[in-house]
Protein: Glutathione S-transferase
Organism: Halomonas campaniensis
Amino acid sequence: MELYLNTTSPYARLARIVLLEKGLAESVTLKWCDPWADDADLLKANPAGRIPALVTEEGTTLSESMLIAVYLDGVSPNKPMIAQDSLGEVLHLAGLGQNLMDAAFNTVIARKHYGNGIDDSELGQRRSRAIQRLLKQLDGELGEIQQTSTINLGHIATAVALDYLAFRLPEANWKEEYPELQEWHAGVTARASFEQTAFS
């Protein structure tokens, strides 16, 4: 298999963490690329030019991090990332993490192309409010949860989104505002799969 990615995409990092947690790292060649440069191989794998993109052993191309995660979860015998006995709970948390990731990522991209003043636009303010609501809800849901040795797709998506927020939008200051959520996050990101894929 081949996985197209870069070092700063939260979506690519999510897919790579699932790879590691599922014991599939040795089965995949990492194809580092710049999605903004219209990389020819990436465009062949994903005409949208977005990462991550996965080419399976059969030559099928997959895009979108959550869909790639579902596929990887199904082809490895390791403990499932999306357990059927907690399907709703896992997908609920994964959705919150995905939404936080989207709001943060779109803020970063908007600033890159239009400057920080774009934050004052209607869409910029909407993204900011979404980030604050999501942080509050995640703190309420995860702040008092005891750490376990198991991890699922919801945990991964949420922890990656929080990491990305700290990496790209440090002014959000969520670790100081939500110390219990920070403690939960620290427990998840201490895993080897997170340490090996840290943003850079």
About this structure: Residues 18 and 69 are 6 Å apart (CA to CA). The chain is about 55% helix and 5% strand.
